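User: My advisor asked me to double-check a structure prediction for Malic enzyme before group meeting. I don't want to rely on an old file, so could you generate it fresh from this sequence?
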Amino acid sequence: LLIDNVEELLPVVYTPTVGEACQKYGSIYRRPQGLYISLKDKGKILEVLKNWPERSIQVIVVTDGERILGLGDLGCQGMGIPVGKLSLYTALGGVRPSACLPITIDVGTNNETLLNDEFYIGLRQRRATGEEYHELLEEFMTAVKQNYGEKVLIQFEDFANHNAFDLLAKYNKSHLVFNDDIQGTASVVLAGLLAALKVVGGTLADHTYLFLGAGEAGTGIADLIALEMSKQTDAPIDECRKKIWLVDSKGLIVESRKESLQHFKKPWAHEHEPLKTLLEAVESIRPTVLIGTSGVGRTFTKEVIQAMASFNEKPVIFSLSNPTSHSECTAEEAYTWTQGRAVFASGSPFDPVEYEGKVFLPGQS
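Assistant: Sure, here is a fresh prediction for Malic enzyme from the sequence you gave:
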């Protein structure tokens, strides 16, 4: 059913429905669809893996539930994400369902609502951090390789920033690993930009990019754009990065903030006066491409979009946060506020928009 009706059913299997399913996972729980590994399994993770009935696993999608889509810490209920993602690998990638293993690592949750919910299915404790957390992950990574061999792909999904970058850096030499939020999103967005260039003209290096949101998705996309730009122009990557600006919750990322920035934001701190708001950044930097990875809905305000439209004939506007309710702006807003001139893509699907007799089909990126 899914393979034959992919486009129609994607929003049911993945965003936006999967977000709501994770929020309510405890109260709609029928049967385990994936494998749960908790702190209580420390020392016997290999045994737990051996309980899974399928032997020849090719791909594992694993989460610890700390940053599910734009919804935050959903603890053990984040299982919907690995399950949904692997359904898509079968439907779109032709991977045998039996070769896919969804895993949730349960180290607790800091979500008070869930801790007090009688139907919550996970450990009722605050999240384990530091050494305890990393020892569990280390045991898990070793056990996976022991059980399924060198070639099993381990995909990290919806980990919080502070763990995601570290885990990717720590295991990318010893294991076949991939972080979807840092790398997968980036590749799709880069593809979207290359498609957008066909409409707006110019090369990647001819454009100026402004991001709202400097987490895994934002910095991951920015890195890949800079890498591709460097490849196309033979310019050093540091030069290419100067065309890309990021705004986080404290404002524009600039040189004077460098000391207090997390390590993954540092490459994006350029010389510029400090600016507090996105609107100020748009007006000062005059980007041709605006990308939202903030996880906060309605942050591309009418003023911001109209400012983009005032100095761009065809402003490129990607509001990528999921689910739909967290999108930086809707397709309708983007087209209406730019008089139908925007090149728009979003993270979750939007219906076609009719504006002044013309129908616009928003892209999903």
